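In practice, a research group might receive sequence data for several interacting partners and want a quick structural hypothesis before committing to experiments. The following worked case mirrors that situation: the sequences arrive first, and a predicted assembly follows.
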Amino acid sequence: MKVIVFGGDGFCGWPTVLHLSKAGNEVIIVDNLSRRKIDIELECESLTPISPMGSRLAAWKEVTGKTIKFFNMDVSKDYVRVLDLLKDEKPDAIVHFAEQRAAPYSMRSPRDKIYTVDNNLNATHNILCAIVESGLDIHVVHLGTMGVYGYTSHGLKIPEGYLDVKIPVGEKDIDSRILYPANPGSIYHTTKTQDALFFQFYNNNDGLRITDLHQGVVWGTNTPETILDDRLINRFDYDGDYGTVLNRFLMQAAIDYPLTVYGTGGQTRAFIHIQDTVKCIELAISNPPEKGEPVHIYNQVTETHRIRDLAKIVSELTGVKVNPIENPRFEDAENELDVENKQFLSLGLNPTTLTEGLLEEVHEIAQKYKDRCDWDKILPTSKWKV
Ligand SMILES: NC(=O)c1ccc[n+]([C@@H]2O[C@H](COP(=O)([O-])OP(=O)(O)OC[C@H]3O[C@@H](n4cnc5c(N)ncnc54)[C@H](O)[C@@H]3O)[C@@H](O)[C@H]2O)c1
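A structural hypothesis for the assembly, expressed as tokens:
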């Protein structure tokens, strides 16, 4: 297949690009390198030394003989270039990662809220609108987040995207299937809930074939492809704004910095290893919706954990202490989370579990690169309420 990966330079995008290329697909990256520019703005680099795009692509060609094309464009602003690219390349599928993805970054200031909304909503809409204008039948696979559901499910196992309901009309109840009610916890998550409405509209109105993946918090760094050469290494964010919780704990453990648990650590979240992320995306591309089918929605998660339990596991593995700090976020102090994920399991996903992968991650990445850590960037700076 020919696949365009929007956001293919990022943490999830880069290993996905390599995985799809290795599997024999023709892969094209589109990215405006905005995440690298945010590194400069935040004065904090990836813990792992990521190579410039030119070196990444040259290394992949040297190691595998495969060519990946790269286009530097802003998907949220360059509508005509997106359209021309689709018409020229005629891809079978698009994977859409090209959004500002950190909840804390989206809550830092009015400017960052506005940037996140402009960037994410326009990027998603431009891609959908360009597919319609191109007249091509392109399957879109989008990375959404578990955060669209909110984290209080009132004892219900959160279904995969849709909820079967009965609507009382007069004396009767009418059966209906609706999008699970959105309950976003940040501006970033709000953009993802609005993406879902764009998908519903373009699916209903224009028959676009769309798969929306509600992904959990991603942990881990490398995949079998990114370890083939030092220049292929994936990024690893450890700072208080962009670092995902488990990667932050692994890094903190490596430098013996007490683990920064927010509040009681009673928040339960869903997780997935980066190696499973790339496999899920391949499975989603290989199993597109039929023409006329509603948007496919999958929960892309493999396990759920309470944050204080994660801290305990990392603490027991490494001997580092746990240090609860004031929660900068506005969220429930404690929540249960039970999530349905049988669709990917039924397609053959065999998850990497936390217990298998954690120690390797501490040694291979966090220990190896700990000297690159800037201690001043560890604590969160962004607050939900001023
Ligand atoms: N990392 C996680 O834990 C996680 C969890 C759930 C969902 N997701 C979703 O997966 C997707 C990818 O996340 P990630 O962790 O790889 O983020 P990332 O920031 O590392 O990667 C996003 C990439 O998109 C690019 N990009 C952003 N806006 C763009 C634009 N307007 N035009 C072109 N390129 C643009 C960035 O430069 C970057 O390379 C995001 O949409 C995110 O919401 C990530």
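Before designing any experiment, note the following. The two ends are 48 Å apart (CA to CA). The chain has a mean pLDDT of 95.
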